[in-house]
Amino acid sequence: GNSVTQMEGPVTLSEEAFLTINCTYTATGYPSLFWYVQYPGEGLQLLLKATKADDKGSNKGFEATYRKETTSFHLEKGSVQVSDSAVYFCALPSGSARQLTFGSGTQLTVLP
Amino acid sequence: EPEVTQTPSHQVTQMGQEVILRCVPISNHLYFYWYRQILGQKVEFLVSFYNNEISEKSEIFDDQFSVERPDGSNFTLKIRSTKLEDSAMYFCASSLGWTGQGQPQHFGDGTRLSIL
Fold this sequence. Notes:
Chain A is an all-beta fold.
């Protein structure tokens, strides 16, 4: 079945640093891909998505490009803020596309 | 922005007792899900629900678990005879269409279930 491998954390950066969190997937066909974020004490929030190859999802300064050649969907942000400190999850549909399979999550801490 | 709401935020229950976790999905969504996250581990799929029946379930979702949409707005997860290993954060989610068709799932803030 479909699966996703996510960069292990934790990641600690200084404010205004460049962020990359790696995500690679194994899938049948070309499923939609998602990034979710979980702030401390909160639920999972959709950060961005891409529905087909070469699509770029973007939101709140974060971007990720669906690359079928490298089966990757890496999350990037040019200049992180302290408020970006959270756990980030890469996800894709699996089973009969009636469920999401999540990566292990990457804890990001941004220091002032 | 519409959101998924879950109650209670924290539930403490004695082992062997039954517990019901409640969720109010986004009002125009048709597809509903439960996930769980054991502390420090991955988010795991439990069950998906559409048109008043289970669409898919994981091997975690055994006879101890059941789901129901009792009144057209609530979506509940019942765990019978709880075990210590059921302690986890339980997330409800809903979507407008199937995720395989690109429709994202929207999650609640979760219910932390602690089994003593």
